Q: What sequence folds into this?
């Protein structure tokens, strides 16, 4: 995409109320994550320092979101959790794109055997229920944040491959690709100059929305005990630990759960509007 | 005159779901230096595919055999890497549809720059200067503004001029124009054809003009080849072909042109174009031919010289064997 086109897309995103809301939430999250030590009221507790005197306190002016079973401030831990969640979102989607997009371009452009092999491999990956595959991989690799990211990225890339392969197949038939070939331009240059830029829009949309899903799935893995290990503050882990306290101490799992919900929602809002802008048939209503 | 490109016994089959389509059935063709050769025929007769075969721009299910000799090399045996040096540089193509021949995402200067830099090995500023010069050569006013435009900001005629400019970046010795005016309206058609002729005079390249418009042929071509169902049935100087068409198919084509001077009814060719999956044996035209003889369904006629610069592939003109 060209610079002025990106600026135009951003303008529309900001003018649209829903996507503006999404953008504000995402920006707020990024700021929160970056400045967590300054924003969190009890940074030490967020890092895991127990505070037994105040365990399971309801929300109050001292602890806005209450405290957990070790007396740690839930608000501080939710703020620190944003770091992990955003890291997971960006890392998983970026890795997925880095694996998926080149493979999809290659398969779509080359066709034939290359296409068949790449597509059968994606079929194998897609035949697993997504969370199950990620679960299997992270069990194999062992616990920990990096392994969760790797596990999710590995179960994620086939979607991008599929998407971009389909686009590549339709774009390689365009006359301007034919012209480029007739001018003696090499395949790699054609892929870089003509196929990729014209095929990337739906992938951008999918990637944006997937940031939310990645957070959700990483939380699910944490919930199952495979992700980030305590005492690190992670939303999924907090929901998992808090579920036993839900009936008597509702605030403990509820606030991290809300954080997940709002974050996923924000990414989806932006992704939705982005899809409509980048799809030429839906774009008109924004102009 | 020297032969620039010679196509010898070119066969092209497409493997398809329904069987093998025998698209080109032994095409023989010579293009001389500094001439405009017109290739005419109806839709699906193999005109475009012949031109695409020259640069091997065919889908992967195509099977090519025969010879295409250009500058002493057989293009069909050339490795892809060598062929890329000929594409665009020595032989370039102008396509039918200027509206989608440019990538909608990039400015003209980027796209022209890409191609100029490709073979010329020069930096960006020089490439832009060269692009501006080329645009001026194809009579585009205000080349600077054109270079800064996106394709959708330009008209079809302007875009086709840009395509011609791009095709001429390296002063090729053969320009293949694959129905370059079909997508344009009549006045622009005339301008584009005039432009090609004017540039030809200036740069001395040969033109292979592919069209189904006999009017265009009469106006622009030196020599004409008539194609029918994957065969070249007649080759002649343009004026000879119009004055004295020999092949029954050529005669049929010419009598199907409305002539405003006489109010005679048009005489359409009877029957349909044969399926290329099961082409008729012998002469592929015989089921539709009014003069068909016994031999026509058995033996494929060869191109024979009828008079000077006038060859025809039809059994009627075999000497001493009139029955």
A:
């Amino acid at each position: 995409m060209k610079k002025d086109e990106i600026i135009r897309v951003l303008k529309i995103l900001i003018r649209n109320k829903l996507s503006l809301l999404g953008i504000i939430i995402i920006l707020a999250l990024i700021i929160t994550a970056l400045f967590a030590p300054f924003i969190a009221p009890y940074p030490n507790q967020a890092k895991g320092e127990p505070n037994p005197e105040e365990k399971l306190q309801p929300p109050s002016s001292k602890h806005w979101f209450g405290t957990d079973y070790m007396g740690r401030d839930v608000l501080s831990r939710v703020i620190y959790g944003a770091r992990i969640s955003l890291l997971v979102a960006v890392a998983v989607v970026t890795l997925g794109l880095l694996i998926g997009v080149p493979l999809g371009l290659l398969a779509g452009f080359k066709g034939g055997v290359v296409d068949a092999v790449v597509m059968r491999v994606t079929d194998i990956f897609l035949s697993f229920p997504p969370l199950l595959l990620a679960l299997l991989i992270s069990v194999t690799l062992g616990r920990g944040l990096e392994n969760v990211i790797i596990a999710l990225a590995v179960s994620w890339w086939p979607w991008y491959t599929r998407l971009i392969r389909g686009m590549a197949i339709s774009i390689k038939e365009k006359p301007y690709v034919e012209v480029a070939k007739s001018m003696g331009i090499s395949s790699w240059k054609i892929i870089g100059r003509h196929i990729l830029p014209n095929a990337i829009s739906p992938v951008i949309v999918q990637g944006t929305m997937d940031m939310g899903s990645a957070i959700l799935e990483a939380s699910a893995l944490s919930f199952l005990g495979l992700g980030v290990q305590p005492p690190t503050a992670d939303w999924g882990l907090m929901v998992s630990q808090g579920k036993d306290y839900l009936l008597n101490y509702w605030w403990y799992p509820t606030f991290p759960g809300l954080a997940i919900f709002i974050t996923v929602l924000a990414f989806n809002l932006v992704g939705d509007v982005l899809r409509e802008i980048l799809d030429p048939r839906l774009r008109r209503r924004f102009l | 005159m020297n032969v620039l490109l010679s196509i010898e016994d070119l066969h092209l089959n497409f493997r398809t779901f329904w069987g093998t389509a025998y698209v080109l059935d032994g095409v023989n063709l010579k293009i001389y230096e500094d001439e405009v050769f017109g290739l005419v025929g109806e839709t699906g007769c193999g005109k475009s595919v012949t031109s695409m075969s020259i640069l091997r721009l065919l889908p992967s299910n195509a099977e090519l055999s025969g010879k295409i000799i250009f500058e002493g090399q057989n293009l069909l045996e050339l490795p892809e890497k060598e062929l890329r040096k000929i594409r665009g540089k020595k032989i370039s193509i102008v396509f039918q549809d200027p509206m989608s021949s440019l990538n909608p995402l990039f400015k003209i200067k980027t796209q022209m720059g890409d191609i100029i830099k490709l073979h010329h090995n020069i930096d960006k500023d020089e490439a832009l200067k060269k692009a501006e010069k080329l645009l001026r050569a194809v009579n585009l006013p205000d080349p600077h503004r054109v270079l800064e435009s996106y394709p959708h900001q330009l008209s079809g005629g302007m875009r086709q001029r840009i395509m011609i400019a791009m095709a001429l970046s390296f002063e090729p010795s053969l320009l293949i124009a694959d129905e370059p005016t079909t997508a344009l309206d009549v006045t622009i058609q005339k301008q584009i054809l005039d432009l090609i002729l004017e540039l030809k005079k200036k740069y001395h390249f040969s033109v292979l003009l592919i069209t189904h418009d006999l009017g265009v042929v009469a106006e622009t071509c030196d020599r004409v080849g008539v194609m029918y169902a994957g065969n070249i049935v007649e080759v002649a100087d343009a004026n000879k072909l119009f004055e004295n068409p020999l092949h029954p198919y050529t005669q049929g084509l010419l009598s199907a042109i409305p002539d405003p001077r006489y109010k005679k009814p048009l005489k359409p060719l009877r029957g349909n174009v044969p399926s290329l999956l099961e082409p008729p044996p012998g002469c592929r035209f015989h089921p539709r031919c009014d003069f068909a003889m016994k031999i026509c369904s058995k033996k494929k006629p060869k191109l024979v010289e009828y008079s000077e610069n006038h060859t025809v592939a039809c059994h009627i003109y075999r000497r001493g064997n009139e029955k």
Chain B is about 30% helix and 25% strand. The first helix of chain B runs from residue 47 to 54.
